[in-house]
Design a protein that fits this description.
Blueprint: H1 11-23, H2 31-47, H3 61-77, H4 83-99, H5 115-118, H6 128-132, H7 136-141
Length: 142
């Protein structure tokens, strides 16, 4: 029943499966089941985001890797006293990923190319560290 929530064929089907699961929550009494139900309830909208994004995917190794790295950094960022410093650190992480060239990609032709290169973005002459610290309104204009 739990798997029907993230693996449904659409958002409506997922919501119906989620509501059915919640209606039967009294059947799940063990600690692990309660933990899973609580996690589903707290993260439901995030779990089904891909239904709202055209040509999106549920998950893959790349997104899991990026999420893992961001989670690690978010734990460190909680100690920042200024939002700007936390934002700059997150921007640095994101830009590092976007500019870093792949070295062990399954598609061998992608090795030596960064995600931005694969998206045909022109990155020559851009210092990614300086670029990552620019104001977001300036970056959008570029």
């Amino acid at each position: 029943m739990v798997r029907m929530v993230p693996y449904a064929n659409g958002e409506d089907e997922s919501r119906a499966a989620f509501n059915e699961l919640l209606a039967k929550k009294g059947l799940f009494r063990d600690k692990k089941s309660r933990y899973i139900l609580r996690s589903l309830r707290e993260n439901f909208d995030l779990l089904i985001t891909y239904f709202r994004i055209k040509n999106s995917f549920r998950s893959n190794n790349i997104t899991e890797s990026v999420n893992d790295k961001i989670e690690m950094k978010l734990k460190m960022i909680r100690g920042y006293k200024k939002v700007s410093k936390a934002r700059n650190s997150l921007n640095l992480i994101v830009m590092h990923y976007r500019f870093k060239r792949f070295s062990s990609c399954r598609k061998r032709e992608n090795n030596g190319k960064s995600p931005l290169n694969l998206a045909d973005a022109k990155t020559e002459g851009i210092d990614w560290i300086i670029y990552s610290q620019k104001d977001a309104s300036i970056v959008k204009a570029l």
